[in-house]
Design brief:
Layout: H1 3-20, H2 23-28, E1 38-43, H3 50-60, E2 63-68, H4 72-80, E3 89-93, H5 94-102, H6 122-125, E4 134-135, E5 138-139, E6 142-148, E7 151-154, E8 177-180, H7 183-193, H8 206-219, E9 222-224, H9 227-236, E10 241-243, H10 248-256, E11 261-264, E12 270-279, H11 286-296, H12 299-309, E13 312-313, E14 330-332, H13 339-350
Parallel strand pairs: 1-2, 1-3, 8-9, 8-10, 12-14
Antiparallel strand pairs: 3-12, 4-5, 6-12, 6-13, 7-10, 7-11
């Protein structure tokens, strides 16, 4: 080997070292960890407590972001928002599910990937027989929990349980009544008060029912949104009677707080909801979303919902409503005739519009 060759080799080695040196720190440092997948859940209070979520996150190596809603109106607004990546899952009642299916906002469920569905009571396994959650051969939602919207009353103030929805309008209890802040349920409640079909109002019926709801507004202490809010209002203002949108979830909260309350279904009947889990079409994690639904139907998780919230699950037959015998029928929610009109009128009612303007 001549001197020129040796010199050239030394040059190459120096250039190689010069090229490799900047790469050495990168080779020594570990590669950044890949971000965990994110599952975005739109839910109701008490359905996804932090410790329940934490077990799912650890089991699947994911991050779960839970957004809680306080009414169907808020749920619709959240789902309609174009901002952000959207939600993977939503918990909604069957009437809302039917609406979402009609608007093609939900994806068909991979039922075969939800084996815990086989643990449900027979009536909840007959998915095509549950109104609103199926279309053709596709199923779009999985039943999770349910309750009727009865009347909760203070036994110290009412020696005899209220038997009619009319108690909410009774001037004897002015300022000691609570009702739920929801447009669809508000008009349905007023319709039942008048003996009308609650979900299919004629255009001529909106005015009289709006005037009834103005009268209700004047009789109530407040309209509440969340169950925790109703508990504080009930306790602070010595409430006599409340229309319980969350049903037995609120009954349990009030009794756990030491309040002597009873619970009845009035003779006109009580609206009732069956909440289901559904996967949205915007979901970027459909397989993980199916795992979430399966996890929610795990016996430990479903029974913990009942233990903590007092709500029925779909795996076990519920106990009797309470020691107050129900008097009326259970009226399962259905899609309403004009949700936009109900919402518009409801905002006018809450804002203080006079009866003569309806």
């Amino acid at each position: 080997m001549d001197a020129s060759s040796t010199s050239a080799q030394r040059g190459l080695r120096r250039r190689d070292v010069a090229v490799l040196l900047p790469l050495v720190p990168a080779l020594l440092w570990p590669a950044p960890a890949r971000a965990a997948p994110v599952l975005r859940v739109l839910s109701w209070p008490g359905y996804a407590d932090p410790d329940i979520v934490a077990v799912f996150e650890k089991r699947h190596g994911v991050k779960v972001e839970v957004t809680t809603v306080a009414s169907d109106d808020v749920l619709r607004t959240q789902l309609a928002s174009p901002q952000g990546p959207g939600f993977d899952l939503v918990a909604a009642n069957t009437a809302e599910i039917a609406r979402l299916v009609a608007r093609r906002l939900l994806a068909p469920l991979p039922v075969h990937n939800i084996p815990n569905a086989e643990r449900q009571l027979p009536r909840f396994r007959q998915l095509h027989a549950i109104a609103g959650i199926a279309q053709g051969t596709d199923v779009f939602a999985m039943p999770y929990t349910y309750s009727e919207m009865g009347l909760i009353y203070d036994r110290q103030q009412m020696a005899v349980p209220p038997s009619s929805i009319a108690v909410l309008w009774d001037p004897r209890w002015r300022g000691r009544v609570l009702a739920f802040d929801g447009s669809s349920h508000g008009f349905s409640l007023a319709a039942m008060y008048r003996g009308l079909p609650p979900f299919h109002l004629h255009a001529t019926q909106f005015g009289p029912l709006a005037r009834d709801l103005v009268a209700l507004r004047r009789n109530v202490r407040s309209f509440y949104s969340l169950p925790e809010e109703s508990l504080e209002l009930f306790r602070k203002h010595r409430i006599a009677v409340m229309h319980a949108n969350y049903g037995q979830q609120q009954l349990k909260q009030l009794r756990d707080a030491g309040l002597d309350v009873g619970y009845v279904v009035p003779r006109e009947g009580a609206l009732a909801w069956l909440d289901c889990w559904a996967i949205t079409r915007r979901s970027t994690q459909p397989a993980l979303a199916a795992e979430w639904i399966n996890y929610m139907l795990d016996p430990t998780v479903s029974r913990e919902l009942t233990r903590r919230q007092g709500l029925a699950n779909t795996l076990d037959e519920p106990p009797a409503l309470s020691d107050d015998a129900p008097a009326g029928a259970i009226v399962w929610l259905e899609p309403v005739e004009d949700e936009a009109r109900r919402a518009q009128l409801w905002q006018r009612i809450l804002s203080g519009d006079r009866p003569s303007r309806f």
